[in-house]
Specification:
Blueprint (H helix, E strand, L loop, with lengths): L7 H23 L8 H20 L4 E4 L3 H7 L2 H15 L5 H9 L8 E9 L1 H5 L5 E8 L2 E9 L10 E6 L2 E6 L6 E3 L12 E4 L7 H10 L7 E4 L3 H7 L5 E4 L15 H9 L3 E3 L20 E4 L4 H18 L2
Parallel strand pairs: 1-2, 8-9, 8-10
Antiparallel strand pairs: 2-3, 3-4, 4-5, 5-6, 6-7, 10-12, 11-12
Length: 328
């Protein structure tokens, strides 16, 4: 089904979205003139509305799963912030955009049952966005509830031109392109398997994952403690897909009830799998994207280049068994 899709409209929307993000950062973070606006709120709604607008025109019958809805925009966002979102979209699109337009776009495809579902994370990596670190604009595609495609724009990805990179997955293959434009280049995961050579990435935010638990897993797998970089956002998945990292663990903190949200993982999972890697739960089962907004049936996440996946699964189970004995 994905072979018949032209992803060019998504590329266009995602690039426009990054331009909006950079404008918001310049106006409300770098500049001292913050005008009382909340930059993440402004960027989240503007980016999601922009992408939903494009999907509504290019793929009008498809479903959309995303964090924001029109009712939230009307009820929870201040008058001045709604006006700012309208202004940003008007400038980006070269046409007058009203708040009614934004509400309609935000709600397009919501609560619809369709063969194809676009999963949008407008600003993935909120703290990275605020701190001018890494964040991504991510659009994943589920076909029959399975990850089948992705477009991930990573403005902070380390590149020679410092303009970031765009990652794309479809047809079971993955590509990388300069965010500023240029030729698509196919990417694949690394072939590193020796534990001492492996490079790991994990979340910066301690509320998202148990850093100490994941350190024990890496030690059990024989990985060096210093071969680790903490990153915001789904850029972690992109690093693995491009061969710049090998392991991403997401184990929740002990007794944590925080759910894994679908939009935090759909695009990244599709990208890593298309690049030849593996993404599973901590018991080796696939991630289950059929349960709505959350990965309700999944305990945690292991993403890897595939060559070390079984070793990681064994290490996780070892740590979980040790924790179970310690709690008795």
């Amino acid at each position: 089904m994905t072979k018949s899709l032209n992803f060019e409209p998504i590329f266009q929307a995602v690039r426009q979205a990054v331009a909006i993000c950079r404008t918001v950062q310049e106006m409300h973070l770098v500049s001292a003139q913050k005008a009382g606006h909340e930059p993440v709120t402004i960027a989240d709604y503007a980016v999601q509305a922009l992408i939903c607008r494009m999907i509504s025109r290019a793929f009008p019958d498809d479903a959309i799963l995303a964090e924001e809805q029109g009712g939230q925009f009307v009820e929870l966002v201040s008058d001045s912030e709604r006006a700012e979102v309208s202004r940003l979209l008007t400038e980006a699109l070269g046409e007058r955009v009203t708040q009614a337009d934004i509400v309609r776009w935000l709600d397009h495809g919501y609560d619809r049952d369709a063969e194809r579902t676009w999963v949008i994370d407008p600003i993935d990596g909120t703290k990275g966005f605020l701190a001018l670190r890494s964040y991504v604009v991510a659009v994943g595609l589920l076909v029959d509830k399975q990850p089948a495609g992705a477009v991930i724009a990573a403005p902070g990805y380390p590149t020679p031109d410092r303009q970031g990179a765009l990652f794309y997955a479809q047809y079971g293959v993955a590509f990388r392109q300069p965010l500023s434009g240029g030729a698509l280049r196919r990417i694949r995961v690394s072939d590193r398997a020796e534990p001492a050579l492996l490079r790991a990435v994990e979340s910066v935010d301690k509320s998202h994952a148990g850093h100490e638990r994941m350190a024990r897993v890496r030690a059990a797998a024989g990985m060096p403690a210093d071969a680790l970089e903490r990153l915001d956002s789904m850029e972690k998945y992109a690093r693995i897909a491009a061969g710049d990292a090998d392991v991403y663990l997401r184990l929740p903190r002990l007794r944590s009830q925080r759910p894994h949200m679908v939009w935090d993982h759909a695009a990244g999972t599709a990208l890593v799998q298309a690049a030849g890697g593996r993404v599973t739960d901590v018991d080796g089962s696939p991630l289950d994207f059929s349960q709505g907004r959350t990965l309700a049936r999944n305990q945690g996440i292991i993403a890897s280049n595939g060559r070390v996946h079984d070793r990681l699964l064994a290490a996780v189970q070892q740590v979980l068994a040790e924790e179970a004995r310690g709690s008795q």
